Amino acid sequence: MAEKKTTSTAKKATASKTAASKATASKTAAKKTTASKTTAKKTTAKKTTRKPAPRKAPAKRTTARKAAAENPVPGAVGGDGAPSPIEGQSLNLGHAEAINAPGDADFRFYTEVDAYTHEELGLDVETLLDMYRNMLMQRRFEERAAQMYGRQKISGFLHLYIGQEAVSTGSVWATRPDDPIITAYRDHGLGLARGMSANACMAELFGKVDGSSRGKGGSMHFFDVSKHFYGGHGIVGGQIPVGVGLAFACKYKETGGVSLTYFGDGAINQGSFHEAANLAALYELPALLICENNQYAMGTSVERSRGSVDLYKQGYPYDMAGVLINGMDVFTVYKAMKDITDEAREGKPFMVDMRTYRYRGHSMSDPQKYRTKEEMEAKKDEDPIVRLKAYMLEHKLAENDALDTIDDEVKQVVLGAVEFAENSPYPPVETMYEDVYVQDDYPFIS
Q: Does residue 233 contact residue 267 with C-beta atoms inside 8 Å?
């Protein structure tokens, strides 16, 4: 009996230890689970903090809203006729880091709006009207091109420039007609600003033989040597070394010209940019490397793709001056480009960070899910065409009816371009291998 009691007591003790052990294991597992959840929360929090903060809309002035509503530019933004305030409003240039420049850095800033009058810039009324007409031409042309794309009249890619018209018009008006221009695939605006005909441009989009590249290039390859417009290139950053080569040609031939090389904020991460910038500085070339910083490389914002978003500093390692320009104001662009172009002609290259914004997606297939409606709404207040129109009305340089008449005339020119493109034939099949670079000898390396 005693042995049985002892055995029973021992079993109970063993069972008790087992239960205690299970309880301890359960507590340990619970602690691990809690710790795991805490770690997961910390990870989530860390990921959350790495997301870029949403941009704040710029302050809106009721009086400016009212004034703009009285003088809208129909279709100014995406064809919805959104009015825009003008007077005294600061533009949202996107995130900008605090300036912590080395003592020998040559950084210049043209960021204020309403800082210049047309008299101060030496622009007469006729010139202002020409600039306004040109900016409208770019916009109406692309609005109609988008429509034609939807009707499958245009194949392939179509990258629209809408919203960036102050950059193209301000740059072209500030430089000489024979200063070479080269750009990437968003080339419609710069081509039209440089004076390419709407007929040739629309026919090129349609793939017709009367297009600027005989219908073989399409949207990304506008080209017109007679206008010193050298494309229109589809490879991201590939045009930058070519643009520096054009600057070398200006210096070698002693033309006194300056090459204007445009590229997007995504292209500045390419090695081609850095190699070309180094050579431009090394050879003291008359080169303007102009980043049209519309703040999105396809669907990625510059804040998410760059350690430093102040792209004007990217020329500093090559002893190049850097310039930050408000690209939503045509007067500011004109003033800045006039100043630096005069210096560049003497062999001083510049790295230009042109802050601008595109209202449309990267291309026609882009649903634009990477930005908010609030951001787009805020940007409507910075429309460069509305801004110029309001300036002329405010200073009584033109009547509203006269400006509307210009708009109607531009629309008719664009409609005529569509008709021209429709009636132009496709290039004959037998011309497929024409216009391909080839020659029997290479005298420049012999």
A: no
Give the single-character DSSP code of 229.
Answer: B
Torsion, Cα of 348, 351, 353, 359 (10° steps): 100
- Give the model confidence (pLDDT) of 386-443 as tens digits: 999 999 999 999 999 999 999 999 999 999 999 999 999 999 999 888 888 777 777 7
CA distance 37 to 33: 6
Selection from 389, 333, 288, 327 nearest residue 173 by Cα: 333
pLDDT at 433: 84
Give the whole-angstrom CA distance, residue 156 versus residue 158.
7
pLDDT over 80 at 24, yes or no:
no
Other Cβ atoms within 10 Å of 215 Cβ, number:
21
Q: 243 phi and psi, to 5 degrees?
A: -65, -40
Instruction: Give the mean pLDDT of the chain.
Output: 84
Give me 374's structure tokens: 């609030």
Residue 374: partners with Cβ closer than 8 Å, 6 or more residues away: 54, 57
Name every residue whose Cβ is closer than 8 Å to that of residue 16 and which is 6 or more positions away in sequence: none
**DSSP reduced 3-state for 297:** strand
Largest CA-CA distance found in the chain, in angstroms, rounded: 122
358: CB partners within 8 A, 6+ apart? 160, 161, 162, 163, 164, 186, 294, 296
Q: State which H helix or E strand residue 63 sits in.
A: helix 62-70
Distance separating alpha carbons of residues 291 and 288, to the nearest angstrom: 9
Residue-wise over 430-440: b if at least 16 C-beta within 10 A, else e?
eeeeeeeeeee
Q: How many residues in total does the chain contain?
A: 446
* DSSP H or E run through 259: strand 259-264
Q: Residue 376: helix, strand or coil by DSSP?
A: helix
Three-state secondary-structure class, residue 360? coil
Q: Which of 108, 68, 145 is nearest to 339 (CA)?
A: 108
| DSSP helix/strand/coil, 325 | strand
Residue 51 to residues 32, 93, 269, 309, Cα–Cα distance (Å): 29, 19, 21, 15
- The terminus-to-terminus CA distance of the chain in angstroms comes to 116
Asked if residues 267 and 235 have their Cβ atoms less than 8 Å apart, the reply is no
Identify the band that residue 52 occupies on the pLDDT scale cut at 50, 70 and 90. Answer: very low
Task: Report the C-alpha dihedral over residues 298, 299, 302, 305, rounded to 10 degrees.
Answer: -100
CB 143 within 8 A of CB 75: yes
- Give the three-state DSSP class for 181: strand
